[in-house]
Here is the input.
Amino acid sequence: MNKIQDKLRKIYEDEDSKEELLLEQEGVSEQRDRPDVSAAGEEAAVEKYGNVSFADETNKKYPIDKEHIHAAISYFGMPKNYSKYGDADRKKIAGKIAATAKKLGVDLSDDWKKKHGIA
Here is the structure.
């Protein structure tokens, strides 16, 4: 009986993984709350940066104002940071950073634009 239960458990785990992978490949991620950001962390971000817009509003990451735009470009450009998002969210966040950079007269490198699909 244990072998059957183990096989069934593996089938269910594999199905969940397949569904997650398919959603990711389709760029469906709905910008879920990141597990590395708590409600207290969100409050701290607002307290630290003030009343600013964030490229990732859901998790209060990457403030995009004149004072922080260079940091947003740099930090979001790091694989350890942008890899936490699905394709759709990456494009949305990169788009917000790029639009703000352009508005503030900050040039983005061609590599950064290419990596994030910015024309």
Summary: Strands lie at 54-56, 61-63. Residues 52-119 form one domain.
